[in-house]
Each structure stands twice: as C-alpha cells, then as structure tokens.
Amino acid sequence: MRFLAVLTVRNEAPYLLEWLAHHKAVGFTDFLVLSNDCDDGTDAMLDRLQELGHVTHIRNDGPYDKGGIQFTGLKLADKLPIVKEADWILALDIDEFVNIHVGDHTLPALLNALPEATAITLTWRLFGSSDIVHFEDTPVTRQFTNAAPVVMHWPWRSAMFKTMYKNNGLYGKLGVHRPRQPDKDNLAQARWFDGEGRELDEQFKTRRIFSNYGRSNYGLVQLNHYAIGSMENFVVKAARGRAVHSEHMLDVDYWVERNYNTEEDTSILALDAGFQRELAQLRADLPLEQLHQESVEWRQARFLALLEEEPYRALFGRLLQTPPSRPVHPTAAQLMLTHALQGQKREQKQSNEQ
After folding, report:
1. Using only C-alpha atoms, what is the Rg of the chain?
2. Helix-strand-coil percent breakdown of the chain, rounded to 5?
3. Residue from 52, 65, 55, 51 nearest 9 by CA
4. Distance between terminal CA atoms of the chain?
5. What percent of the chain has pLDDT over 90?
6. Cβ–Cβ under 8 Å, residues 124 and 158
C-alpha cells in the first residue's frame, strides 16, 4: 500500500525534518514536496532529501495561475507518476500533523477501523502558542501542547478538515482541503467518513471543507494544526504571507482565531519512539544537519531584521499584549451562525436577481 503526502512549502526549512520524521512514523511511504521562492535553504534541504531517497522535490517556480501558488503547485502534481501510482493521497501543510488514535497509531490502523471508507476527513485541532515568545529549534509537537477544546462552536475554521482519499479514479485532481474533479457518473461508490468514524452525507462528496460544529470529530483521527507557533515565528510567517495568496500579510486577526490554549493534548506522543528513530536517521546525514542549522540561524536573523520594520514591530508588540483566545459560548456561536446563514441567503438572492 502506497500512502502519498503532498506538501507545498516556502521558507520552512527548520521544520522539515520533524514533519518528515513524524509522517514516516505514521506510515506515509511517499512524499511529494513542491517549493517556491525559498530564501532559507528549504529547497536545498529538499534536494538533499531527494538525493537520499526520502522525497520527490519539484520547484514550483511559476508562472502561477489565478488560484495562487499552492493551487498551481497541486495542478503540477496532478501530472506526476508519484501521484498517479499512489493508493491513498493526502495534501498537507508543514504545520499539520496527522494524529491517529486507534491501534498502533498508523495509517493501516486507521484504515482497519474504517474498512469501507474511500475518503476520510481529518479535522483540524487548533494548537495555540502556549504563550511562547521566542523561536526555538525544538520540535513543535513537543513545544506546543495546548489546544482548542475537543468541542468547538465557533469559529468555522476550527472545524476545517483535510481529506485523505483513495486514489481509485473517483476524483481526478488534488485539492488543498479535498480532492477535486469528481467522477459524477460513479460518485455513488464514494464512502466518506469523518474522524469520529461517522459516515458523511452526499454534500461532503462534492463541496464541504469543514465538519459540523458542536461535537467531537477526533475519536479516530485528528489533524494537529500548529498554525501560529511562537510569537517570533508568527512574525516571520506574517512576512512570508498566506499559503494560498502570499501577497496577503497575516495580522492579529489570524492569530486570535487560532491561539487556543484551553486544553492540553499530548496524544501525538503515542508515536514518540518511531518519530525519534526516524528523526535520528535523518539528522545523521551531516550535509542535511548542516543545512538545518543554517536554516535555524536564518530564521533567527530574519526575525531581528523584521523587528526594524514598523509593520512587523507593531505586530510583535500586539502579540505580546494579546491574551490567549477564549472559546465562544454555544449561545453566542449560534447567534453568529444564524446571521451568517441569513447573510448567505441574502447574497444568493441578490445574485439570482442580477
């Protein structure tokens, strides 16, 4: 069985080895990584990892279509043999870690728990900053152990998911959150299940990108999402821009909607032995280790340089003043949701009348 993880990256070199080691331990057999516009040696690390046989590295140098860099990269990936030959595929970001709660915590164990599934939604669990200010060269899965509650009622992004799907022809193209280009003539064969083991209805087969609020979606599997990291790290990330539209600078609104530190969750440590073994093997390569150390120094220097620029100095100051986010009470969340749905209906009506 070939499990493929597809990753798009820019300036994420300090995190590559941890991410790769963890997902090797989870059970992914193949890795396709698309890089673009790297200044910190990410592309050089990926070249070395490719030489060692760990990944397939493609430079996503553009030009980019209107969907942005990430969508352009996924379209490029669609054409590659490594994608066509995979049995199961999952598109991920560098701050997302698959966390399986059944059996031996690997992908085969998850499939054994859901033998009829052709697609499984892995819902984000948002991990906050743990009030850590400074960037450290320590695995993020060990630093940031505070997360949002299991049951969230708002914001909608707390229920977003990524989809691991069987590469059996029911979908023709990769997508950021879900596979695209469904084969509508055979879509009845698709069986979608969520991370709690519940079978999902028809709308998930074609359009949904977030799970239902107000209930657990993590019984079998979750996607640990370390979207912000430390305050220093977030400033560097803000300068890089969003993954889909890199020209959009991140700000405190992005931080507030993800900085939940309500509950401790160390369940990802169930794979610690396998992770440590894989990481040690990667770091035993001296050229790779040297590139890693250089990337750490680059990130540290990059933060100090950004601190001399007013937009980023102001952002860092705001982060220092902003307390952890508090989960929204169900009553208030229902008010928000009701008006969100009313707004959607109004917009749809206006669109139909034009």
Report:
1. 20
2. 40, 20, 40
3. 55
4. 51
5. 91
6. yes
H helix and E strand count, the chain: 12, 13
Query: What pLDDT score does 248 carry?
Result: 63
Amino acid at 12: E
In sequence order, the β-bridge partners of residue 325 are: 260
Task: Residue 327: name the closest of 143, 122, 128 by CA.
Answer: 128
CA dihedral (42, 48, 174, 61) positive or negative: positive
CA distances from 163 to 5, 183, 193 (A): 11, 17, 10
Q: What is the mean pLDDT of residues 165-191?
A: 97
Whole-angstrom distance, CA of residue 92 vs CA of residue 33: 10
Rounded (10°) CA dihedral 195, 190, 55, 159? -30
On whether the CB atoms of residues 141 and 21 are closer than 8 A, the answer is no
SS3 for 294? helix
**How many Å is the maximal CA-CA distance in the chain?**
65
Tokens of 221: 């599997």
* pLDDT at site 127: 98
Q: Give me the residues paired with residue 166 across strands.
A: 88
Q: Rounded distance, CA 59 to CA 342, Å?
A: 44
